[in-house]
Each structure stands twice: as structure tokens, then as C-alpha cells.
Amino acid sequence: MAETTHELEAVVTRAPRPSPAPIMVQRRRGRAFLIAALFAFGGYLALLVLVRFNRQIRLDIDATLHFQRRRHPFLARLMTAVSWFGFRPQSMLLPASVVAALWALRFRLESLFLGLAWLASFGNFLTKLVVNRPRPQGFGIRVAPAKILHSSFPSGHVLHYLAFWGFLSYIVFTRATSPIRWAVLMVVGAFVALVGASRVYLGHHWLTDVLASYLLGFAYLIGLIALYRYVRARLVREHGPGAAP
User: Fold this and answer.
1) Is 161 helix (H, G, I), strand (E, B) or coil?
2) What is the pTM of this model?
3) SS (H, E, C) 115-160
4) What is the mean pLDDT of each run of 10 residues along the chain (245 residues)?
């Protein structure tokens, strides 16, 4: 077991790294992404206020009816499969397993930050308490059977996928070999792109719920990546490359 762990760690550690961009280019990119994150967070707050004082929005109803007009067995199975990972117990077991695996492989900093990415779901829970928006119903809307306990705004699935799995894909993309990192990025990207549509198609969320979670998730992810890069760079400066595996 110990040999297998060291082999897996070696595969990731020996991954070829792309040549770093010049420091000024990195700083400009960092500022651009942080500005984009601030705009995204502002958009999220605007939707929160809108939904807080307008429980039902005509755009949401029209969007749901438009999505659900496309009835096909394969589409229904696809939307159900995409959403499956966001329901309990898998939404708890899978992230916990990944965090524990990174810790066991001695990627302690990455494991800790992935735990912070998982905490985005706590922000989702608090927002639901404040907004307390009813789930989609009526108006000819079909609601797929599911154990849904909380209010509608925002979408916990979208926020979880974008924050947790998005940060994991960032770690893999920057630390693993080329075939692995591109495969993970494409799979996670596909799930993140489809999960919003799946929540509306299944009748579990309104369109504005989904859009708000994309905005909040993007802002959270960019902020977390910026903090991770800062902490990692500081550890390397103070203790050498071995301090941040």
C-alpha cells in the first residue's frame, strides 16, 4: 500500500510544468481575474436582491417551460445523471474521499484548500435561509422526484460543482501529467456546464437560481485560487520548494 502511494505521488510530482509566464504578465492576469470575480459577485448580489423581493419572475417560468418542452428519454437520463453527484450521500462521500486522498498523498496544502472549496456549500445554505424562495411548481412545470429539503435560491448543485470540482480540476491541471489534466478538465467542465441546465430541466430550480450560483461559484473559485497561489508561493519562498509538494 505504501509503495502504491509513493508511485501515485511520484506520477503527480514529476508532471511536466509549462514554462511560467513573466511576472508582469502573471500579475496582469491575476488582476483581470480578480476584477472579473468582483463583477461576478456583484451580479450575484443583484440577483439575490431581485429574487428576495420578486418570488416569481416571468423569465424563470418561460425558461423552465422552454427547457422542459424537449422531452426525450436520453435527455432525461442525461440530466438526471449529471445532477446525481450533487445529492446526498454522494455529495458528501465523494468530496470527503478526494480531500482524504490528497492528504494521504501528502498534498496537504491542496487538501486544505479543497476543504475550503467544499465550504462553499455552507454559503449556499446560509443564502437559502435568507432568501427562502419556493421551489418551482405550477404553471405546467414538471418536477422530477427527489429529496429536496431547502429553498430554491441559489442552486447548491451548481455552486458545489463549480467551487469544489472546479478547484480540484485546477489542482490537477497544474500538478498532473498532460493526458490526465486535460481529461479531468474536460470532464469537470462538461459537468459544470450541464448541471445548471439539469436543475432547470428537472424542475428543481429556477433559471435565476442557477445563474446566481454560477456567478457566486466563479467569484468563490477565483478568490480561492488567488489565495492558494499566494500561500503556496510564500511557503516556497520561506521554506524552499519542498515545503509545498
Assistant:
1) helix
2) 0.84
3) HHHHCHHHHHHHHHHHHCCCCCCCCCCCCCCCCCCCCCCCCHHHHH
4) 43 45 60 85 93 86 90 90 93 94 92 94 86 86 83 93 96 85 92 96 95 95 92 76 55
